[in-house]
Amino acid sequence: MNDCIFCKIIKGEIPCKKVYEDEDCLAFYDINPQAPIHIVVVSKKHLPSVLAFSEDDASHLGRIQLAIAKIARQLELTESGFRVINNCGRDAKQSVPHIHYHILAGRDMGEKIV
Ligand code: 5GP
Ligand code: ZN
Predict the structure, then answer these.
(1) Cβ of 2 less than 6 Å from ligand 1
(2) Which domains can be identified in the chain, with CATH numbers?
(3) Cα(11)–Cα(44) distance, rounded to whole angstroms?
(4) Which residues lie below 8 Å from residue 97, measured CB to CB, with a gap of 6+?
(5) Ligand 1 neighbourhood includes 87 CB (under 6 angstroms)
(6) What are phi and psi of 86, to 5 degrees?
(7) How far is it, in rounded angstroms, from Cα 49 to Cα 88?
(8) Ligand number with the minimum distance to the CA of 45
(9) Considering the entire predicted model, what is its pTM?
């Protein structure tokens, strides 16, 4: 998508502080961090949200889950733990319509939402 900010980051048209990359996803530090460590793990496929997933995406999406675990190990978060969040749509305040997962870490996350 030409006007999608995350597609532009994936194409290298907008810089990012990269943490991890493989054939399925790119992970980088969030520009507006909500925790000492705040990473967004972005699919390399432009899917607007989880609602756009199809059966054909299952392997791709599964590998992104594996990438989240790799990133956690890479950043040595396995002992402390971390939170993974996806925002979908208006009420969840999704601001970038390109599927991504937030990894939040580096502090006590406070009360659980769920
Ligand atoms: P959402 O609100 O869609 O769940 O999350 C989008 C996230 O992308 C936000 O946390 C926002 O700070 C981050 N973000 C938006 N634009 C940029 C950018 O250009 N660079 C980086 N590194 N993060 C961005
Ligand atoms: Zn996109």
Answers:
(1) no
(2) 5-105 (3.30.428.10)
(3) 9
(4) 4, 48, 49
(5) yes
(6) -125, 130
(7) 6
(8) 2
(9) 0.98
User: Which residue is associated with the tokens 């994936």?
Assistant: 10
pLDDT tens track of the chain, all 114 residues?
Answer: 889 999 999 999 999 999 999 999 999 999 999 999 999 999 999 999 999 999 999 999 999 999 999 999 999 999 999 999 999 999 999 999 999 999 999 999 999 888
Token pair, residue 87, equals 């925002």
**For position 113, what pLDDT does the model report?**
86
The atom number, within ligand 1, closest to the CA of 32 reads 12
Ligand 1 centroid–CA 76 distance in Å is 23
